[in-house]
Structure prediction request, 479 residues.
Amino acid sequence: MSLQDRLGQRPAAAAGNGLQDRLAAAGDAALASVSAIPVTSVVSNARRNTRRAYDPLANVRRRAHEALLELLGPQLYDTVDDDDELARRVREALPEVLSKEETTLTAGDRTLAFRQIIDEILGHGPIEPMLRDPDVTEIMVNAWDRIYVERFGHIHEADAAFIDENHLRRVIDKIVSRVGRRVDESSPMVDARLPDGSRINAVVPPIALDGAALTIRKFSIEPYTVDDLVRFGTLSPVVADLLRACVEGRLDVLVTGGTGTGKTTLLNVISTFLPAEERIITIEDSAELRLAQDHVLRMEARPPNIEGRGEVTIRDLVRNALRMRPDRIVVGEVRDGAALDMLQAMNTGHDGSLTTVHANSPRDSIARLETMVLMAGMDLPIRAIREQIASAVDLIVHLSRLGDGTRRVTQISEITGMEGDIVTMQDLFTFDYRAGLDQYGRHQGELLSTGLRPRFLDTLADHGVVIAAEQFGRIGRSS
Ligand SMILES: Nc1ncnc2c1ncn2[C@@H]1O[C@H](COP(=O)(O)OP(=O)(O)OP(=O)(O)O)[C@@H](O)[C@H]1O
Ligand SMILES: [Mg+2]
Prediction:
């Protein structure tokens, strides 16, 4: 269904007079666009409508938006390619539309309404201010009137809503069509990267049962540096120095953690420790890493096209990278059979490669790697897989998102070898949860050394990187 069909399908929203009519029409509009909507959604729509009635400018915006649609007709959304022209037309028409408003608007309200309508039409509707706000790191649209944002590690419900389901769908269409993708009933989920690097995921009915949902992981304009992470308490300066030594000393490092714990961010930070004279190849599903070194080759996997052809997987890219004479390979995340190629790369002269694995603990990441290697379909015996893991991976740095909203390194473990069929590892640092919370509910603990002497000190020494053993007792103390 084309955009215009969908717009045309909007029921009598413009014809309604009273608030009730409008709200009912908005409910219908949401229903019209969602096939086979479950009963629970109807109930929640009623509740949502009541909540939205508190926004004093909502009705003004809705009327102005509709009047503009009528005035500018199909041009309003069909000229997405020419934003400047569209902006000019909307800016020209809007004052006239607003002047027809019966509600008396103060000058302040008028300016605000003007801004919001421009955002709705030219930008991304109610999420536009969130996209602009550098403190917002994640935007989660669970439904057209249910928007959550993450700020400073905490998730809040935002006081904003799309006009209706159609409005949300138009914004999603706009975002994905700009990057050459589409989302509709036949391909109801899409992953894409915006031109600014932000990562988006959209799911729409029929797989999204309560209407479309959109998740945006914002890309910070300036990537976090090691100093930022120290400032946030993710790392202490001493741990940062240790990680630098491990990267310079060519250890193969796995960054682990759950969803959104900051794995990619930490991978980016530790990648900045890679020596400038080395040839680095980065491989990602969606390019998020930003390395400052000169000698960097970046590759991005590609999903299949609509006919199901042309897919290039992380696995293909890792294999290809081996033919490009890399000194180091940095893989954004291994999540399937690519793990086998990555382990082989680490075991065959590409020491010092870095990657992330989604896992609940360092120990869990070993099990995850095993499963992923099996996905490569090579039918390897489990012991052989474990041997590959034990000899490939040197260090595991685990991140957690704590209850206080901070993201911290909570464990650093070293893989020491095999005992029988088991991969052995020792914890070098663990987070001190026992230190409790301060008056603001923040964890006071830090990463403490377990006192064990890392075995990798010898490997580091082979690469000319020396860390005094007595450092270890002190690691974690921020002074
Ligand atoms: N150490 C940190 N302190 C505060 N915020 C952080 C930190 N690291 C990352 N973030 C923020 O947290 C969000 C998630 O970060 P990131 O993409 O690195 O996580 P991830 O673990 O790779 O997520 P995913 O599992 O989705 O790949 C981003 O918005 C990022 O800006
Ligand atoms: Mg990531």
Remarks:
- Residues 202 and 214 are 4 Å apart (CA to CA).
- The pocket of adenosine-5'-triphosphate (ligand 1) is lined by residues 137-138, 153, 217, 220, 229, 232, 234, 257, 259-265, 358, 407 (CB under 6 Å).
- Confidence is low (pLDDT under 50) at residues 1-53, 475-479.
